[in-house]
Amino acid sequence: MNAENIPVEEIIEEKQIIGRATNGMEITIDREKCIYSMYDPKGCRRCLQICSPKVFATRPEQKRDFSGPKETRTDPTKWILVIPWPDLCNLCAACLKECPKDAITIRVNGKKLSVSK
Amino acid sequence: MCHWCTEHAGRGERWYTTYENFLFHKIFPTTTEQEEAKKKIVDTFADTEWRYSQPQYIRNKEFLINRTQLGFGSQIITREETKRILDLAFEATEREDSIVVVGHCPCRLVLDGIRDYCCVGFGMPVTMSMEVSYGRLPKEGLTEFGGAEWRELRHELRKGAKVPLKREEVDELLDDWEKRGLWHLVMSRGRMPLIEAICNCERRYCTYWRNREFSGVKEYCLKGHYVSRIDPLECTQCGSCLEVCEFGAISYSKIADTVDIDVTKCFGCGLCLSVCPHNAISLVPREEIPAARHLW
After folding, report:
1. Is the dihedral of CA B7, B11, B17, B20 positive or negative?
2. Which DSSP state fits B165?
3. pTM for this prediction
């Protein structure tokens, strides 16, 4: 696989998280529908676990910074889903089938990818 | 001998079986160097999860090459070698203010959202970012760089943990992980000769292996010092080694009815050796095989 210095666009907005691949494919997670939670044992993380090329990842919402006093530091228990490697997606649509809230949408050149559940 | 052994070890030893490489105060002798190293630990360890989910992390070849020059690297080892490493690590805890702990794997946490407690860490740096499940609580001096922030959270997660961690318990855990089909990796994270952890990885999650595979920088995950070899007279073609090999080195030929190991693909993790029911597989040092001698 040629993975040399591909420019990646990873957009984290208030309502959605978008990962745009170089070939025009776009993955979107609706943050209002998504029920992902790192510290909740009932929290859903099925898209992370079903995806074999590992397109999705997770991380703390804000970078931890220990330089300031303790009151100003960010909450380390807040985590978000991100789509850092959309180029690895092979369009198997397993995440669309697995998502219980239909929060994920995949668009190829503007056309929505749909699956029958 | 890989190039790290010639650089960081002497007297025919390997770089991960040299006792000095386990001692933080030997590698950073002066106080200014120690302070700098500790500052670097804050930068690199407090944000492990953040870093691994960055798009440039496996994509940008130049970024990854620059990181290996900073002293990142790992090598695959066999189960026998982990015993020697653990001996030295426990010896180092008596010599200086150091610990051996079992914590969660950050790669699995980032890529799969699971907390899998299967990383053995040595020395001071590991307590910074890990939520420790087994191990002695660090002393006061160890936690001043970021570790103290996590102590309350860690304390809740640590309920039911065994304190202190014994040598035999780590051995038991390593045997369990070997049964799960995880291979072992000795690694240094940013301070090259200092040995900091034994990772127990799968191909699916291991960030270091992914870095090697995506960027082509071999230093991220060097092959081990051994290569597997099959004794064709003992082998019954049961296929248990075929299932366990994650590097695609073992193949079965239907015409000849034999199992072969490709020495150019073998990483020398020794998993096939542990699952073979007929003891048909043995480990041969890499220097003895001319075809694989320079393949790291």
Report:
1. negative
2. P
3. 0.83
Inter-chain CB proximity B109 and A58 less than 8 Å: yes
pLDDT in tens, B206-262: 888 988 888 888 888 999 999 999 999 999 999 899 999 999 999 999 999 999 999
Q: How far apart are CA B135 and CA B139, in angstroms?
A: 12
Q: Which residues contact A56 (CB under 8 A, 6 or more apart)?
A: A47, A48, A81, A82, A83, A95
Tokens 């740096």 -> residue: B125
Query: What chain B residue is nearest to A77 in terms of C-alpha separation?
Result: B153
- Closest Cα in chain A to B212: A3
The residues facing B200 across adjacent strands are B184
Q: In the 8-state DSSP scheme, what is residue B2?
A: -
Size of interface A-B (CB pairs under 8 A): 74
Q: Spell out which residues of chain B touch residue A3, defining contact as CB-CB under 8 Å.
A: 58-59, 61, 214-215
Question: Considering CB atoms only, which of B60, B113, B146 is closest to A45?
Answer: B113
Calculate the alpha carbon distances from B218 to B75, B195, B247, B267, B296 in Å. 10, 18, 15, 12, 7
pLDDT computed for residue B147 by the predictor:
42
Tokens 């180092």: give the residue: B92
In sequence order, the 6+-apart residues with CB closer than 8 A to the CB of B3 are: B296
Q: Which residues of B touch A85 (CB under 8 A)?
A: 55, 58-59
Report the range of poorest mean pLDDT among A50-64, B57-71, B150-164, B212-226.
B150-164
Question: Kind and range of the H or E element at B220?
Answer: none
Q: Are B55 and A8 in contact (CB under 8 A)?
A: yes
Q: Which residues in chain A are closer than 8 Å to B150, comparing Cβ atoms? A: 76
Residue B183 and residue B271 in contact, taking contact as beta carbons nearer than 8 Å: yes
